[in-house]
User: What shape does this take?
Amino acid sequence: MGRWKFVGRTDELSRLVNAATSPDGRGLFLSGTAGVGKSRLLAQSLAQLPALDCAVWSASANIATAGIPFGGLAQVLPADQPAGLTPAGIMRWAVEALHQQAAGRRIVIGIDDAHLLDPSSAALVYLLARSENTTVLGTLRSGEPVPLPIRALWADDLVDHAELGPMTPAETGELLTAMLGGPVDAPSADRLHRLSADNALLLRELVIAAHASNELSQAYGVWRWTGRGHLPPSLDDLVDARIGQLDQGVRAVVELVAMGEPIGLTLLNRATDTTAVEVAEERGLIRVVTHDRRSDVRLAHPRQSVAQRLSELGESVDGPLPALMARHARAEYAHSGDQLLAVANDFAELELTVFAAEATSRAISRLRAARSSRSHEANLRLAALLRRCDVLRTPALTIRQPALTDRERQIARLAARGLASRNIAEQLYISTRTVENHLQRVYNKLGVADRSELWPALRAMSDPEAEPEG
Ligand SMILES: Nc1ncnc2c1ncn2[C@@H]1O[C@H](COP(=O)(O)OP(=O)(O)OP(=O)(O)O)[C@@H](O)[C@H]1O
Ligand SMILES: [Mg+2]
Assistant: This one.
């Protein structure tokens, strides 16, 4: 499976293209959840702009550039930057230089993940949006803090701001067809929609997983998904024993949770029928666990029997996945960080990156609880996997936050951004030694060896402010 063609999203696409080509040139920013298809949509719209009328620049902000002044716009800024300019000077020079290069055409700047722009780049974007004959298009991850100058774009009416929703079931179907290069039979498509909750990135992971385990097969030109066509047998037993026949909606809820537990309640409600979720909970098939402000849903029966049934399944079903899943379930049940790490490795080898990241994330919790020295290694591996996941987050990737005090968290963030202890001490009016003491406690709690591992560890905790703010 290589890169597939762009499908669907007709309205959003023409909105973006019109924003850049209409006479008033008002730009457009789209916010959406992880993996909903923002980057691809923006890239597609930029590619469609007429080169004769538009000079197009695109940049994609990311965590690596977030700490570097003008790092986020490195792909946009002309190379021949004069030396010795102040930040304000760079901005004026950049606006002028871009206008010169555009030679009378409309300047169009596309910025993917604009919430990750460093402050200088964000300010420059604002300035560009205000300059003549210029349109800014961009994407933002919902729920992430947005730099002030970017928020000011729509507060000051320089751009429109809209939410990019999930794809429609029809579009997900088209996407599936595009990924596989041929039509998919209706029941398979339907199951894949429900499992992916119309999320493009999850759909891609599911399709890759199904491919890897030979669960997708083509007959007479039509793709069919043969994997997990039914509830795992253990769940069937459970269901029969508890309540007998289940209606389809409730069954769908239990299947979905079995496949992806723990799964966020919001996602579950979106992917299935809300009443069915309530019924499943009432009947004791699933349980909702709330911590902090998030609710996760799990199956209400021990994983041990799931592991048992999965390994039986592994003997009767071809492909490596059932056996691996069984090992995963057993490692979870045994609370073994080492086993979880080994399973994570095998997932990674099959290129099941999200599964690998989840298993690693669980391993870190276990290793940390056991005060194992391997948690350093696991932290680094998780960071590498997360980079490959392209910032997708699932509930299982959210490790319960170890209890850092406010001070420890504050110091950890500063250190993660590269500040020396001496500078942190100056900034907080405390002694360098106090800073070092706090840091040592943080290292112990997070199971990291030094500063270089601090940021991945904070990030793995889903500390919303762990990312460098520049
Ligand atoms: N309309 C589409 N047509 C074809 N492929 C798509 C479409 N939308 C998304 N995809 C594919 O789905 C995957 C996820 O999409 P994309 O990377 O655009 O999501 P995103 O919203 O930018 O995610 P993130 O929040 O992680 O940045 C990519 O592999 C992308 O190519
Ligand atoms: Mg993206």
Remarks:
- Strands lie at 27-32, 54-60, 106-112, 134-141, 159-163, 216-219, 222-225, 263-264, 286-291, 294-299.
- Residues 38-39, 112-113 surround magnesium ion (ligand 2) (CB under 6 Å).
